[in-house]
Here is the input.
Amino acid sequence: MAYWEWGPELELGIAVIDQQHRRIVEYMNELYEAMMQKNNEAVGRVLEALVDYTLTHFAFEESLMEKGGYPLTEPHRAVHENFTRQIHRYREEHQNGADVAKKLLSSLRVWLTNHISRDDRDYVSAVKQRLEEHQRSGWVRNTLKRLFG
Here is the structure.
């Protein structure tokens, strides 16, 4: 049983971003499964992967906003940085032996839902029109390769 099912209400209409958000939800489901199995080692592995992937996603998203000329890129980056500090605290607590999975899942679900529906949705119009130009020039492909391998 999945913790959270991806739904159309989370889609922004930018395929590459929707795919990355969907992957974060998949990581959350993996974290839930590890928690349900009481597998602390698996929780740690998924948590590390989730942190790494999220940071890479943020870097890509911020780069996309900059390229799209989105005027609120810096405040959006600040929101990402605040969340990054929060997720690092969860990772640190886990490394110190705390059981953080349930609290982390709840926090992630609320944060991601709100962030996508408010903050991310706000940049869509600015970014979408420029995205097609950047895809033709190869910028998206090259940036994805650089950040995600």
